[in-house]
Amino acid sequence: MAKTCPHLDQIQRVTPSAAGCENCLKTGDSWVHLRLCLICGHVGCCDSSKNKHATKHYHKTSHPIIRSVEPGENWKWCYVDELFMP
Questions:
Q1: Does 2 map to a domain?
Q2: CA–CA gap between residue 64 and residue 7 (Å, rounded)
Q3: 33-52: b (≥16 Cβ within 10 Å) or e
Q4: Would you give the DSSP letter of residue 53?
Q5: Rounded to the nearest 5 degrees, what angle is found at the Cα of 39, between the Cα atoms of 33 and 43?
Q6: d(CA 64, CA 79)
Q7: Any idea what the CATH number is for the domain that residue 20 is in?
């Protein structure tokens, strides 16, 4: 049986915090792909980026669910359950 994420009820209607990685924009760094926190709207860079701001945001806030904001991608990830949701 497929595992379901018990954190889906925490998802909010959010507005992205920036047009790129919020933290990289402040420091002038670049990123590879962007992730949107579905709890607060923070936009951070993915783990393929040198700064890994999306994951750092999770560790700082414990906000469990992100989604890709890359064109053509419509998936979510739960950090707590390490669960990919297409």
A1: no
A2: 7
A3: ebbbbbbebbbbbbeebebb
A4: H
A5: 25
A6: 5
A7: 3.30.40.10
* Structural domain boundaries enclosing 79: 9-85
Give residue 1's pLDDT.
56
pLDDT (tens digit, 9 = 90+) per residue, 47-86? 999 999 999 999 999 999 999 999 999 999 999 999 999 9
39 within 8 A of 63, measured Cβ to Cβ? yes
Tokens representing residue 46 in the block: 């993915």
| Cα separation, 8 vs 49, whole angstroms | 26
Distance from C-alpha of 63 to C-alpha of 71, rounded to nearest angstrom: 23
Token couple for 33: 């792909």
Tokens of 10: 């925490």
With respect to residue 4, please indicate whether it lies within any of the assigned structural domains. no
Note whether 85 and 78 are within 8 A (CB): yes
